[in-house]
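Homework help thread (please don't just give me the answer)

Our assignment gives two proteins as sequence + structure token strings and asks us to describe the second one. The first is just a warm-up. Here they are:
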Amino acid sequence: MIVVAVVAWLGWGLASDFSRGWELAATAGAPILTLLMLVVLQHTENREAAATRLKLNELLLALEEPDPDVVTVEERPDEDLHRLARQYRDQARSA
């Protein structure tokens, strides 16, 4: 798809003797395509992260006594995240 677009753009440049409009299409089109790619990639990344969180929650709930604070950690404020991180770091050091 991209190769076809580049060939068409170069063909247009040859046909128009590399006019100002041809240059403008490249300078305006590249940032628009970059923004579009960014939106698509972020959507895919957010979807994968949500799926990973669901899988991890299932694993946590499979434990005999899951910590409810950890299962719902993504819904908590940053202060709670830092508190839980310190708590589990301390537990790991003492183990």
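The one we have to describe:
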Amino acid sequence: MATVHPFRALRPRPADAARVAAVPYDVVTADEARSLADGNPLSFLRVSRAEIELPAGTAPYSDLVYERAAQNFERLKNTALLVEDDPSLYLYRLQMGAHKQVGVAACYSLDEYDNNVIKKHERTRPDKEDDRTHHMLALGAQTGPVFLTYRASDEIDRIAARAIAGEPLVDFTAPDSVRHSIWRVGGADRDALVAAFGRIPALYIADGHHRAASAARTRVHLRDRGAKSTSLGDGADYNTMLAVAFPHDQVRILPYNRIVRDLGGLTPDSLLEAVGRRFEIEAGPDTPVAQGQISMYVKGCWRTVRPRARPTGSDAIASLDVSVLQDELLSPVLGIRDVRTDKRIDFVSGARGTKALEQLVDSGKAAVAFSLYPVSVADLMAVSDAGAIMPPKSTWFEPKLRDGLLSHLI
């Protein structure tokens, strides 16, 4: 069963929250981060991506970067722009248009991460783990939450609805039009949430596998160094990780679409001929209307392709559209064997829409584009429950949490 710990969040003052909050460190390039932080000395990107303040060409994983991140974090703390709460839970609501989702921000057990109560569906890369581990150790804090989900609970929903009836502690709309609202939860509602999560059998990492893995590595490092626990009876110390857990029926997954830069020696016509031997092809929309369909953009128009033979049986991975695309088209037709390493393929968030795909192909920057039907939360949970690994770049969660709004001192 899941354990949640109230924690003494370090957070910006309400008046400064919009200027401090920043997009997750791993969804922007250094140039994009530099542009977003330009003119805003409070931007948390100066902590999460401190290389933007160093000379161009500075290695992003150099000691100088982590030293600058720690300096900038201390500057925010020392100028009283960040305040520390008593042990609390928080409700974090994301609103994008008509869509709303409310999650519980807390510290979650790293023992439960190790024991697969908190389940994974992605492999992590050692270099990215090294980066965030060094970052956490340099700051003495976890500053970007892991995004968790769980099978919805009426009990938790009722408590959350009651707790957000009052005025939020933080409430602003970010430049991307996503509204971020946070309520601090103490007293009886806090205790009720802790008890209710104790009846949740499993949590699932939706987004933030590298943050979670790095928190686990940081714990080992601090233990080996003989570091003392910072918990004041709340259980929230380096043995826990900062996360926000959302009910599964509120989580919104967008597709992670694909472009291929060249056709590997094929012409557009010969590509269509080769695809036609494996798929049924017909004129279709830019977005698949159901699972089992893939939209392909080539020669200036969209086509719907359906595999002539779909995988049978209970294999949760092989039946995903992203797997069918890889196994039946990208690999045998275009020669892309490993999407992790092949430079001919790139990935485009569903948040950018299909016009972005068309522009890349029409401009000649790509030769063909594929628009996918989004993976469902049920698919993600089934894969995680099976102890399996999702194909790379299968899901894009939107809207996203912001870094810097809630930090956990370790």
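TA reply:
I won't write it for you, but here's a hint about the kind of observation we're looking for: The longest strand covers residues 99-109.
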